[in-house]
Amino acid sequence: MTQLSLSQVSLHYGSDPGAPAVLQDISLTLRRGEFISVIGRSGSGKTSLLNLAAGFIAPSAGRVSMAGRPVSGPGPERAVVFQEDALLPWKSVLENVALPLKLAGMARAGRRDKALHWLAAVGLEDQGGKPVWQLSGGQRQRVGIARALAADPAFLLMDEPLGALDAMTRDQMHELLLRLWRASHAGALLITHSVEEALFLSTSVVVLAPGPGRITLTEPCSWGRRFLAGEDPRALKSEAGFILARERLLSAIREGRDDPRAVAA
Ligand SMILES: Nc1ncnc2c1ncn2[C@@H]1O[C@H](COP(=O)(O)OP(=O)(O)OP(=O)(O)O)[C@@H](O)[C@H]1O
Questions:
Q1: What sections of 5-66 are H helices per DSSP?
Q2: Residue 167: CB partners within 8 Å, gap ≥ 6?
Q3: From ligand 1's centre to the CA of 179, what distance in Å?
Q4: Distance between CA 46 and CA 37 in Å, rounded?
Q5: Do residues 252 and 39 touch, judged by C-beta distance below 8 A?
Q6: What region holds the ABC transporter domain (predicted)?
Q7: ipTM score over 0.95, yes or no
Q8: Which end of the chain has fewer CB atoms surrounding its CB within 10 Å, N or C?
Q9: Residue 87, burial from CB neighbour count under 10 angstroms (0-12, 13-18, 19+)
Q10: How many CB atoms lie within 10 A of CB 74?
């Protein structure tokens, strides 16, 4: 089975070997069909971890590999969704979604069909002809996710894609993300500051502690899968098990810190 692995990975930025490590001894495996969220205080190295998985940066020690082969740079099998939507505002919605397919050399008709399919999957089938600047923030993030999925990636790497959205839009996006994750059969890696988001979406949540960034807790979860099986999301989020897991994660995140207000539940 295809998997994306970080094995005993450490990271220092810059060339000074004496500089403090940003990440130390991180081992994490993401398989297709899994959804792993990474949560932790600001500066704990979450984005650095995602950038390693994406191949944007290389580890100082240890190994990043996909399907057993070392990752030596970004690749189309690992699609990235950023907090800022990173779309081309002067191009149409459809052109933005089709762009990676064009770069991959797909013929025009094929890329149009594929882009339309994923635009429909994110509920924007009527917006394909609009320029991106006419869309709302939530719509733009949906275009970004459709673009990422259009290339059929094995892995979807998301760095706080919902951070700028209002609470109601965010809840709708959670449900959409879960359906897209199921439809794409991708493995998802999500960086988030929201414990509730992490718990609701993931098959496991990983807590990173700072200084140097290291994994201090892994919490297996099944609420997202239960939502996909038809259970009510509000009922799931008010279950005792959900609330207890939220408290465990919040304690792990706050450990060693004086001010507990930095993390949103
Ligand atoms: N390109 C870089 N060069 C040097 N140091 C960096 C670089 N990128 C990040 N860092 C440092 O690495 C540490 C971890 O940063 P990172 O952005 O990975 O953390 P984070 O957990 O994603 O933070 P946040 O939650 O605030 O986004 C920080 O101390 C940061 O200053």
A1: 46-54
A2: none
A3: 31
A4: 10
A5: no
A6: 4-235
A7: yes
A8: N
A9: buried
A10: 14
Return the closest-CA partner of residue 59 out of 213, 189, 205, 218. Answer: 213
Tokens standing for residue 5: 């692995």
Distance (Å) from CA 42 to ligand 1 centroid: 8
Ligand 1 atom at minimal distance to the Cα of residue 208:
21
Q: How many helices (H) and strands (E) does the chain have?
A: 9, 10
Strands 187-191 and 155-159, bridge-based pairing:
parallel
CATH 2.40.128.120 matches 76-191: no
Walking along the chain (265 residues) 10 residues at a time, the average pLDDT comes out as 92 83 96 97 96 96 95 93 81 90 84 90 89 88 90 94 83 92 95 96 97 95 97 96 97 75 47
Any idea how long the chain is? Answer: 265
Residue 262 has a pLDDT of 47
Instruction: State the Cα–Cα distance between residues 211 and 143, nearest whole angstrom.
Output: 36
Distance 165 CA to ligand 1 centre (A): 22
Map out the domains of the chain as residue ranges.
1-29+48-74, 76-191, 194-265
The answer to whether the CB of 151 falls within 8 A of the CB of 104 is yes
Protein residue closest via CA to atom 24 of ligand 1: 42
Is residue 190 within 8 Å of 38, Cβ to Cβ? yes
Q: Whose CA is nearest to atom 4 of ligand 1?
A: 13
Residue-level pLDDT at 136: 86
Which residue, judged by its Cα, is nearest atom 25 of ligand 1?
A: 42
Structure token pair of residue 218: 């892994």
Tell me how far the alpha carbon of residue 13 lies from the centroid of ligand 1, in angstroms.
9
- DSSP 3-state assignment of 202? coil
Contacts of 131 (CB under 8 A, 6+ apart): 89, 90, 91, 92, 93
Q: Report the interhelical angle of 108-121 vs 167-184 (nearest 10°).
A: 130
